[in-house]
Design a protein that fits this description.
single chain, about 210 residues, alpha/beta, 6-stranded mixed sheet, two-stranded antiparallel sheet, 5 helices, about 35% strand
């Protein structure tokens, strides 16, 4: 019973250590000559990633975030399938023609700019659960009684992965970039949760950055 309790405590500590934020915006930029963001009614969303499944999930989450704020949305996966990626995209003029014909006045893109991996060693731990009430016991009795209540967990190697992403907003009429934000995702797990959190993170940052001009 004590052994099970010690293992449970160790597992709980690991869970607490892993509950920190996994995504954050590291920097953002706003074009000082930008038009009023309130002029946009319909946005073209494009996730420029290799994996079409990831592309679909990310675009869907970004579309949901935009729609919730009253914008109409066109997703790249609905217009350019299945090879619209960063490395294999239609040329600029073909994209702009499609965007304009769809009535979009803004373009929002997401790109994976870099990925880093770092392998580290996580040392094992030893848990000791002393038995109270034997303060006068000699060392021999103490060691013999305590040894079964000392439990160790082995060390192990783990690889941390950090993904660097950039979101950009373009004005269709002028073709100028209006806003951009760089972010980091640390050890993302499920793509659904990552995409939802990322979309929320970007939209919140955009709202802060593109508020009414002073």
């Amino acid at each position: 019973m004590r052994k099970l309790l010690s293992i449970a405590v160790f597992a709980f500590v690991l869970i607490l250590q892993s509950c920190g934020p996994t995504q954050k915006v590291t920097s953002s930029w706003v074009n000082p000559q930008r038009p009023s963001v309130n002029k946009y009614n319909k946005v073209f969303i494009a996730a420029l990633v290799q994996n079409n499944g990831y592309r679909s999930t990310i675009e869907n989450e970004l579309a949901a975030a935009a729609t919730a704020r009253g914008l109409q949305v066109v997703k790249s996966m609905d217009m350019f399938q299945p090879n619209f990626t960063k490395e294999n995209a239609p040329d600029k003029e073909a994209i702009l023609r499609a965007v304009r014909s769809s009535g979009c006045d803004a373009i929002f893109t997401v790109t994976l700019t870099d990925k880093q991996s770092d392998t580290r060693y996580v040392p094992g731990t030893t848990t000791y659960s002393p038995y109270m009430g034997y303060g006068g016991m000699g060392f021999g009795g103490f060691y013999g009684y305590t040894y079964p209540m000392m439990y160790s967990t082995p060390g192990y190697y783990t690889t941390d992965k950090t993904y660097f992403l950039e979101g950009r907003l373009f004005d269709v009429a002028s073709e100028n970039m209006v806003w951009s934000a760089q972010s980091e995702a640390y050890n993302p797990t499920k793509i659904d949760k990552f995409s939802k959190d990322y979309a929320s993170l970007l939209v919140e940052q955009m709202q802060r950055d593109l508020g009414p001009k002073k």
